[in-house]
Amino acid sequence: xxxxxxxxxxxxxxxxxxxxxxxxxxxxxxxxxxxxxxxxxxxxxxxxxxxxxxxxxxxxxxxxxxxxxxxxxxxxxxxxxxxxxxxxxxxxxxx
Length: 95
Fold this sequence. Notes:
About 0% of the residues lie in helices and about 55% in strands. It has no helices and six strands. The strands form two sheets. It has a four-stranded antiparallel sheet, with no helix packed on it. The protein has a two-stranded antiparallel sheet with strand order 1-4. The protein is elongated, with a radius of gyration of 15 Å. The mean pLDDT is about 80.
């Protein structure tokens, strides 16, 4: 609990990508924006501010949304389901 987990995603569009957002969706359906990135290294985005919290125990979802750099600001997203079985204390003895 409280330890950061690195998540990476790749996004591409013919007009380039203007920004990418990382969301965590709890088993209860609460959608939380974790981090927004505008710059990438060769289309790869590394999110470093993601950590598991107690509301995510069960079948949670991680969603990545990319926005194209075009006049319509076209959006696309992809998501994966994760199963959080439980949470252990973090490195700093947080409960």
